[in-house]
């Protein structure tokens, strides 16, 4: 078994979304309005961000045949905006009744900009590609994991794999993403709990969503609704900076050690460590399952070390429930 704390080249070019979309120069059909404005102000609350993200994530359910016309959903202080490439009226009429009065549907486009695992748009998202340089100039790269809330303080904290932080010469304390300070190591797991919590950098925060690997390629940001129990043959998926993600099922629980879950031959690679392991459901919800920790492989080169290209036989991840009890924290749900 080889821990995945090696900096590896990024192998995923993800589709980008923006927090403040820019209207493109498209012209709507003559029989379709350019926009339909909100008729009542939005009363912003702690649940607003989750409502907006769920509106995006569940668009295939509520928008039906018009879902493919929706390009982006975001909000300002008092309005939810739905940007569409076509069928303004159709999308407006399909909106859930509780959000329709507060929503402006507008014909527009989404400009290419930051908003991916390689360049997050703010509010650090699980699955981000992160890196650190220690006190002796060594650099390591891993993947950001789930967001947690401390039971003792209520603080909202990020995470990655504990072994990403550990080094015999000098630990990796400060973590970065796309040239920006992401967070600082604050609490480490014990007793097989290969998870370390990160305090957000000043002026930043960790949000409740992760990048979900899509079957056809690319990623989508989705809000995590909580943690699920891990049972044998539970279908799971993961996202990691090197592999880009994959899926399979649980084949062993608490093996090789307490809190460690083993899967079938999911192709994790060095750099994927710390990434979120999750399950998705037809209604678009996502449940946390754990944190990518290590892999087992066939040592075809017989050198006692994992070499790129050697067959991977399983992924090992740390159970989210085990991490919760060990660190006195829960998966963050707004």
UniProtKB/TrEMBL annotation:
Keyword NAD in annotation: no
Signal sequence range: 1-24
Keywords, ordered alphabetically: Signal
Key word Signal present: yes
Residue runs in coiled coils: none
Lineage top rank: taxon: Bacteria
Protein name: Peptidase S1 domain-containing protein
Organism of derivation: Jiangella anatolica
């Amino acid at each position: 078994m080889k821990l995945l704390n090696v900096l590896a080249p990024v192998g995923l070019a993800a589709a980008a979304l923006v927090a403040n979309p820019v209207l493109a120069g498209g012209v709507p059909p003559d029989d379709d309005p350019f926009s339909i404005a909100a008729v009542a102000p939005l009363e912003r609350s702690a649940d607003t961000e989750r409502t907006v993200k769920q509106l995006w994530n569940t668009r295939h359910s509520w928008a039906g045949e018009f879902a493919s016309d929706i390009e982006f959903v975001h909000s300002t202080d008092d309005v939810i905006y739905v940007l569409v490439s076509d069928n303004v009226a159709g999308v407006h009429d399909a909106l859930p009744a509780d959000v329709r009065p507060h929503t402006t549907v507008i014909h527009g486009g989404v400009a290419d900009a930051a908003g991916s695992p390689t360049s997050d748009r703010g509010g650090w998202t699980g699955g981000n590609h992160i890196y650190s340089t220690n006190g002796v100039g060594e650099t390591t790269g891993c993947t950001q994991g789930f967001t947690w809330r401390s039971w003792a303080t209520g603080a909202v904290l990020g995470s990655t794999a504990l072994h990403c932080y550990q080094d015999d010469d000098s630990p990796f304390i400060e973590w970065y993403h796309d040239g920006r300070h992401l967070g600082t190591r604050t609490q480490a797991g014990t007793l097989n709990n290969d998870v370390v919590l990160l305090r957000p950098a000043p002026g930043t925060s960790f949000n409740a969503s992760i990048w979900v690997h899509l079957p056809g390629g690319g990623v989508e940001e989705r809000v995590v609704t909580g943690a699920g129990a891990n049972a044998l043959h539970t279908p799971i998926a993961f996202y990691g900076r090197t592999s880009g993600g994959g899926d399979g099922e649980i084949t062993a629980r608490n093996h090789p050690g307490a809190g460690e879950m083993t899967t079938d031959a999911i192709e994790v690679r060095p750099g994927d460590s710390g990434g979120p392991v999750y399950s998705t459901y037809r209604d678009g919800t996502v449940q946390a399952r754990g944190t990518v920790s290590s892999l087992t492989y066939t040592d075809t080169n017989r050198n006692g070390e994992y070499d790129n290209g050697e067959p991977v036989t399983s992924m090992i991840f740390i159970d989210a429930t085990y991490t919760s009890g060990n660190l006195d924290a829960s998966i963050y749900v707004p």
